[in-house]
Amino acid sequence: MDRQPLHRRIAADIERRIATGDWRPGRRIPTEAELMAEYDCARMTVSRALSDLAARGLVVRRRRAGTVVAHPPVHSSALVAIPDIQAEVEGRGLAYSHRLTARRIRAGHEDHPALGDRLIELETLHLADGLPFVLERRLISLDAAPEAEAADFTVQAPGSWLLAHTPWTEAEHRISAVAADRETAAALGLTPGAACLRLERRTWRDGRGVTWASQISPGAAYDLVARFSPTKG
Nearest to residue 228, comparing CAs of 85, 74, 92, 83? Predict the structure, then answer.
């Protein structure tokens, strides 16, 4: 039985067609009415799926012209798309949950000058079927996203909240293999020194820094898959 919410399944189906090249940049995707008929659902469900895809930079919603596949930069294929960890977990057929383990307001830092003078610092443990999946440490600029100060991140994880409230226009990823330090190992249920995958991510909106995040997962529990086709020139 598929435990994904329907709007996430619709978004995942569309993303899959984009990733495989079936729907190329500039192509108009089916209208909301067509998607409603295909999935036998309400307009709000379809709109939520398209809004999620637009927030991640995969599609562009245009009045009258409809929704089209976005034209991302060459370097921003699968590795630059901003994943939603909840969608990643549910896409594997697992139950998602999360625990907010730390939250504080702090001053800006010279290591993250693009984020401004006031930050919210968060630590979140993402779970799959109740087991640790990703340990996330995140800074959010309260200059770029002031609503974050009042957001309840025990209800909605920070990354999901940002995708819904502060769409990004630029992103930078750094992917590395790391050994779990004692704190990380304790959170993820690992032995200190165990192999992990670390994704460090920064996003901007119209030149203003929005967030920095470090997401660490057990090396055996996570993978990155991208499918490419040669460009024609």
Answer: 74
Containing 2, the helix (H) or strand (E) segment is none
Q: Encode pLDDT of 160-214 as tens digits.
A: 888 778 877 788 888 889 999 999 999 999 999 999 999 999 988 878 899 999 9
d(CA 98, CA 159): 11
Do residues 142 and 149 lie in contact, with contact meaning Cβ atoms separated by under 8 Å? yes
Q: What is the pLDDT of residues 37-55, one digit of tens each?
A: 999 999 999 988 988 888 7
- What's the residue count for the chain? 233
Question: pTM for this one?
Answer: 0.65
Strands (E), 82-207: 96-107, 118-128, 131-141, 170-179, 195-205
Contact assessment for residue 112 and residue 212, using Cβ atoms and an 8 Å cutoff: yes
Q: Which one, of 21, 87, 56, lies nearest residue 227 by Cα?
A: 21
Cα dihedral across residues 88, 94, 95, 98: positive or negative: negative
Residue type, 24: R
Measuring CA to CA, how many Å separate 154 from each of 64, 82, 123? Answer: 38, 21, 11
